[in-house]
Amino acid sequence: MRLISRLLAVCLLSTPVFTASHAADNFPVRPVRLIVPFPAGGTLDTVARLVGQGLGKAWGQSIVVDNRPGGAAIIGTQLASNAPPDGHTLLFMANGFVIVPMLMRQAPYDPFRDFAPISLLGRVNQALVAQAGFKAGSLKDLIALAKNQPGKLTFASFGIGTSSHLAVELFKKEAGIDMTHVPYKGVAPALADLLGGQVDVFFTNLPEVVPHVQSGRLKALAVADAKRVVQLPDVPTFAEQGFPSFNVYSWYGAVAPAGTSDAVVRKLNNSIVAVLKEVERSEQVRQQALVMVGSTPGELTQYMRREQAKYADVIRAAGVRID
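Above: the chain sequence. Below: its structure as tokens.
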């Protein structure tokens, strides 16, 4: 009887491990949905579609990119957090994923508790741009204009709490100026209004604005990087114009709903990192100045915590809230 009891105990203990391992071996068993909490046409959407194509080939399954913009990316984020934790629904997120909860008294999600990290996906440099006819042609000109008309100039962002928003709050603080924030539900609608003259300046991802700068429809006032970028070699950096520590960019990551098994997370991580290595060699990535970055789940968690710490002071100083 003791022997039978021991055998039963061993079987019971080993069953979950076997089940999880078996599920990972067979994963995915149906189409996988990549939720992007921004409109189609932005950089994260491009990254999701590039990675999705690679995963589809590797897995032999359909990959559906599901754009769910709105609510400072909360709508798509909550949708992903409520999905079954089986790896068939992933969230492709940006900086705001870890920043937005700091802007709310009662955040609807916790980026660490409600999600299982998979991998960093990539990053992209950003630039401050304006319409071709805008009076300022440099940061010095912009600062002078803003000081002469406090609060009159407007700046677009692709969402409250995004890097596009907080970077300008940081710049305002360092430059001692005031401008009015106009948030949008993503890059595409903000860029459309900038081109249409509804807003004055926009701090945004380089890929979306390079063609417009090269065509003369927009002019770049500064790029946020340690050195000038090859796509816009004549545009000075923030550092060259008196802001030596201003180096901000958008970054992207992949997470799954909390409760996704470690075995499935490992398979997701291995597959995504392998696809990123292939994607980084593509001409589309080179042209759009994307930098593909694969990581372990643990490295993604550490990175997210560093990003929260970096922006905490900016949020407090600017008094940024969304509730």
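Residues 2-26 form the longest helix (25 residues).
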